[in-house]
Amino acid sequence: MRNIIVATLLCGLAVPAFAQDVSGAREASAKFAAALSSGDAQTAASFLADDAVALPPGRPPLNGKADIQRFLGNMTRAVKNLKYTTDDVKPIGDTTAREVGTFAFKLQDKDVDGKYLLIWTKVGGDWKVSADMWNRDAGSGGKNGRNGRNGRPGAGKAGGGADEE
Questions:
Q1: pLDDT tens across 61-106, in order?
Q2: CA 48, 162, 103, 83: dihedral to nearest 10 degrees?
């Protein structure tokens, strides 16, 4: 009985640690989104792990911080009114969190919206994006869209843009 009580107490103590880690990932995510929304690809890239991978729709994977930063630079120059909404951040291990959300932006006067998935990994004391994947919602604007849609307040981290398709 004593072992069960001790185990229960230890499990109860572990929950706040996970909440704290997710909070750190949420804070990093907000700063990452703010940098992208303001067109600052260099600051956004500071939130990427050196070996990060991005999986843009219809394109080969982008491997490493330098490739992704070039893509982000092109994207932030091409899109307007970039907005992000984080729907959920959950721990998936001691040093990893999964983030899901939506994005919206204007590309060549068309409203584009979609969803994204980020994997955050704790590197040293900092949370870094280790993987980023996104896609547009059906019927959303851009080359593959049909007349676009009104973008809801939304987000995605790497979003899309000039080099997306």
A1: 999 999 999 999 999 889 898 898 999 999 998 899 999 999 999 9
A2: 90
